[in-house]
Amino acid sequence: MTSRFTELSIDCHDPERLAAFWCEVLDFTVLDRTENMVEISSWDPTAEDIRARQMPPTMYFQRVPATKAVKNRLHLDVSPVDCSTEAEVARLLALGATRTDVGQGEDRSWVVLSDPEGNEFCVLRTLAP
Questions:
Q1: Could you tell me the pTM of the whole model?
Q2: What are phi and psi of 31, to 5 degrees?
Q3: Model confidence at 36, in pLDDT bands (50, 70, 90)?
């Protein structure tokens, strides 16, 4: 018996805004939404697909009253696939990300950013040819 990683749940104040940001970052689409939740993904998973093989998880943004207070213990890493790391960082900043210092120092091969609600994520080296 095994389990599958099917969803990444992210607490937030504004699920619509955060889902829209991550849809632009990752080229995802909205799968489901309610007043307090938005689920996005690059695919529309079925139970049969998930049982057959490990697939990318969906992202689930849920409204909560609490505010983020400290550095994330878990974060996403993204890698640009069709441009340089610098160009992708510029694109993400234009979408509403901000540069973030989590003590990483200056001389790194990745860039730390935060999404519009302050959740840290890293932009790694490009995978572009």
A1: 0.90
A2: -95, -35
A3: very high
